[in-house]
Amino acid sequence: MTTDLISRARAGDGDAFRALTEPHRRELHVHCYRMLGSVQDAEDALQDTMLAAWQGLAGFGERASIRTWLYRIATNRCLNTLRSARRRPAREWGWTGMAPPEPTRLGEVPWLEPYPDALLAGASGVPVGPEARYEQTESISLAFVTALQILPPRQLAVLVLRDVLGFHATEVAEMLDSTVESVTSALRRARAGLQTRLPASADRAPAPPTASAAEDAIVAKFVSAYESADVDALVALLTDDVFIAMPPVPFEYEGLAAVTAFCQVVFSSGRRYALVPTRANGSPAFAIYRPEPDGTQTAFGLMAVTLSGDRIRRMVRFDAEALSWFGLPSPR
């Protein structure tokens, strides 16, 4: 069947080409997102991948599967993007009438975007090789994807292909036009670099895709505290090592004292917000809207939270433009 589809696709049959590639489209999109940290960049890389596959199908030697061949193309398209340095730049603090407290540090990944759980539906059961080291849900978490972005491009590609997808070293070497020795060396360096960026293993896995009763309770308390601007109630939900980031603004706050000071500034202006629950990167998330005097609501952003036990350990706030990927009202 596959051989027949390949023959027809090579002859210019678009339907045959789609039958070959469509089953892999969602997982390739997730792969590009892991490598690039941006939904828009992942979409662009996926479109480039499909165009290159259509144009290059005559050169497909069938030594590997269509899936492996597509991963080779997608990975190299992502590497081209990473090496081009045309990423979204950091942006200055832009909230008028509100001066931020001194940040704990400046973030290094201003292009980071959230990934809607709805897009994971068709990619959650992708086959992984026996050498994969990370659960698929963990490897889409914001902490994991952020840590990946700090790695050099080639190390990033090797780690994702080997430890997330479980491809053999020989397959990865062929994908990257490299040697097994080079791949093994890059993987060793990538693992060391990644571990310095990830939180402790006990805390880094995101919540399960289906919200539990315990998660529902935390979410309800968070919404109540945030919408009522109750800083004390909000802080009571946070771990001692809680962390806040807000790409593309590079300011980051780590630790309960720093995050408390930030929350006090945000809510001291008298502004109030309405939250709409959704899910991003395998964890709870909230579209943030600001009610206006005329009864309308202005899209203000998206907040993704990571839970640790019965507390919130990580909050990442994104621009309102991200809401369009979630099917939610966003700025026009």
UniProtKB/TrEMBL annotation:
Domain SnoaL-like: 219-313
One Pfam match: Sigma70_r4_2
Domain of life: Bacteria
Signal sequence, start to end: none
Record key words, sorted: Nucleotidyltransferase, Sigma factor, Transcription, Transcription regulation, Transferase
Keyword Transcription belongs to the record: yes
Protein's UniProt keywords contain Nucleotidyltransferase: yes
Residue stretches in coiled coil: none
Residue ranges constituting the RNA polymerase sigma factor 70 region 4 type domain according to the UniProt record: 143-192
EC number assigned by the record: 2.7.7.6
UniProt xrefs under CDD domains: Sigma70_r4
Gene3D superfamilies registered for this protein in UniProt: 1.10.1740.10, 3.10.450.50, Winged helix-like DNA-binding domain superfamily/Winged helix DNA-binding domain
Enzyme class at the top of the EC tree: transferase
The RNA polymerase sigma-70 region domain, residue ranges: 22-88
GO molecular function list: DNA-directed RNA polymerase activity
Matches recorded under InterPro entries: ECF_Sigma-70_Domain, NTF2-like_dom_sf, RNA_pol_sigma-70_dom, RNA_pol_sigma-G_actinobac, RNA_pol_sigma70_r2, RNA_pol_sigma70_r4_t2, RNA_pol_sigma_r2, RNA_pol_sigma_r3/r4-like
Family per similarity comment: Belongs to the sigma-70 factor family. ECF subfamily.
Oligomeric and partner information: Interacts transiently with the RNA polymerase catalytic core formed by RpoA, RpoB, RpoC and RpoZ (2 alpha, 1 beta, 1 beta' and 1 omega subunit) to form the RNA polymerase holoenzyme that can initiate transcription.
Protein name, per record: RNA polymerase subunit sigma-70
Organism, scientific name: Hamadaea flava
Lineage of producing organism: Bacteria, Bacillati, Actinomycetota, Actinomycetes, Micromonosporales
